[in-house]
Amino acid sequence: MKYWIYVVALFLWTPFISYQAKAQVKDEASLKAAIDQIREKTRTPGIAVTIIKEGEPDWLYASGLRNIQDKTSIDSATQFRFASISKMFISLGMLTLVEQGKVSLDDKVKDLLPHFQFSNPWQATHPLRVKHLLNHSTGWDGMHFAEQIPASNRPISIEQALAIHPDSRESRWPPGTRVAYNNTAPLVAAFIIEKLTNTSYEDFIKTHFFEPLSMSSSDYFYSDTYHQNSATLYKGVMPISYVHLNNRAAGGLNSSMSDMAAFLTMLIGDGKINGKQVLSPWVLEQFAIPMGTDATDAGLELTYGLGNTRLRVGEQVFIAHEGSLVGTNSLLAYSPSLNVGYLVVSNSNSPAVSQVHQLLSAYLTQGVPSVKPSTHLANGQPSATLSGMYQNISPISELVGPFISLMPWRLSISAKKVLFKPLFGPPRSLSAKDAQSMLEPKSGKVAMVVLDDPISGQVVQYGTSTFEKVPSILVYVPFIVILLWVFTTLVSVINLPIWLTRKKLGKVYATESIKLRLWALLPLIFMVVMLVSLLMIKSSVTPEILAGQLSLSSGLMFIASIFWAASTLWSVKVAYQGIKPSSLSISHLVAYVLISMNLIIVLWGMVNGYVGLMLWR
């Protein structure tokens, strides 16, 4: 599960995940030492790693503590919360039912759940189907904070969880045409599993996965076993209390490293473990193939699959899923072709898991022959008319979508190369496969395709994001506004003590002059209050509770956003009635420019719903 509140992380988000290690390790001893070093540098209480290679003993290494206060160490029986890795079980369970003929990936959700509430304006031409629930292409908004507040101190049913905020299930684009990570859609898929099997989702997973794999330390509840063996989760050094997730099926898996090692062994072993066939090769084959969207139909390979994503590890492509809750991060990745898989988990939100992942990606792929993509263009070169500036039109959350659109990308196509570059950041080099698709050079997989979007016309999908070409002026004008706002704000703040001192000494006679300058700066105060409110929410151990209901933080955000807009609009009136043109000085001009920039930013905020923002809705 991810929170929109990590705005900076979203700004830096790349459409598909690619990590490279800074240093390689050659053997298990140096690997252990490197893991210890990462844990210490990131101040992570504990981290556990397992590597599974077909035909070899499981490799497990635990570094650090499962509980700081008790100084208890992590071992193979220590249970962690694996968060969104839970979604892999939903998709594998659904595919099992598909194989049994009980459901089809193309079945309409409306037919399977006739009384289920959701909105799809394109239902006639693009009905919501089962596959869209699994590959993040429903178009639904990210989970609202109110959906994440624990509804009870006891677990609630999936049906009860889905009744909390049904209006968040509105497709923002025709299902299957774009993708955006979503935590609600897999929960609906789990609900369908319950209806099809006439049993609880947890019992279904226990029967089809936990018992056949002997995963006796795995469940979705705060059991006695979890209470005794769990790693305490931490935010910094603050312990996090156990919370019953409303979307438990999609993010509430509790398991041990030994149990998850059995799951990984099954994944890389064609569904078999210890001679027992748990899943058929067909299920795992379907699980590994990205499918069900316009982009995958066009050949896109580095994108979401059914409950997983394609992760480039070195020059190889692994099937993977990440998990994150407050106080824990995890990552599972495996390669059927290399017969290897690994799992990393920590009891902290530090960057340790991603750094260990970088380490493992280099360690496990060293010596593996690199993939050389074909340079033969069977169907022609992509048109140079595709070159230009692009904006992301498939944000995970509507709340951060407007900010994401401010971070444009430039696509450059020439006879020799294809470059896709964020405005700030390194370029992504691609090679043309044909007129409609581009390859990621190191893996040789299709990373970008050209599509006809039902709403926006011609677009490109790169990894997990869809981009629309926009006029350059729409890209640069916002940055000009921001730069002017920053410059005039700094000048005004720096000069404020000087103005007030000169006024007190009687060297500035016009009250209107000081009034103009102060009103130009007043909106800044309310912007600071909004930022402080945001930081209060982010730093809390229960951010969803602070944001998902009326609290000091969310209330301050709401009130400050209104006063921000009101003070800006009033400053425009003051400016209109203010200094005569003949009396204008440089400082007056700075104030007028600042007021103008404030007005533009506030109007942008009004259009995008940031004025009177109620996070708890």
Shape: globular
Quantity of strands, as a count: 22
Q: Which structural category fits the helices and strands?
A: alpha+beta
Strand content: 15-25%
Q: How much helix is in the residues?
A: 25-40%
Cα Rg: 27 Å
Q: Would you kindly provide a written description of the structure presented here, covering whatever features stand out?
A:
This protein is α+β, with helices and mostly antiparallel strands and 617 residues long. The protein is built from 21 helices and 22 strands. Strands 1-11-12-13-14-2-3-4 form an 8-stranded mixed β-sheet. It has an 8-stranded antiparallel β-barrel with strand order 15-16-17-18-19-20-21-22. The chain is globular and about 90 Å long.
What is the structure about, briefly put?
With 617 residues, the chain is α+β, with helices and mostly antiparallel strands.
